[in-house]
Amino acid sequence: MKSRSTSGGLVYSTDSGRMCPNCRLPQAQCRCSATPVSSVTDGVVRVSRETKGRAGKGVTLVRGLALEPLALAALGKQLKAACGSGGTVKDGVIEVQGDHCARVMEMLKAQGFAVKRAGG
Q1: Residues 6+ positions from 43 with CB-CB distance below 8 Å
Q2: What is the pLDDT of residues 90-113, one digit of tens each?
Q3: What pTM was estimated for this model as a whole?
Q4: What's the CA gap between 33 and 55, in Å, rounded?
Q5: How many other C-beta atoms lie within 10 A of the C-beta of residue 75?
């Protein structure tokens, strides 16, 4: 049987519903999710191509953008539309399906970002 200290404490309360495991407040009043997670970057956006873990399918990755999550999602949508392919935004990294490094770099340079080609 797990002790209280290892299980994290209260998870659900009938008074207030779900509880945040970090700040121990009801999720409606949670302070943890309100604090934005800022990534430390050197100001250079790195564009690379990767196939690892994707069954040989190539994906263009864009890393190093110091943007808010909503702005990052909007930029990801613009890049995907310009390349005519799908993709996603995960953990501050924009993924565009296919090998579109040159096109993505041109678009980012046009928007004023300092861009470098990373990888091979």
Answers
A1: 64, 66, 114
A2: 888 999 999 999 999 999 999 999
A3: 0.66
A4: 34
A5: 19
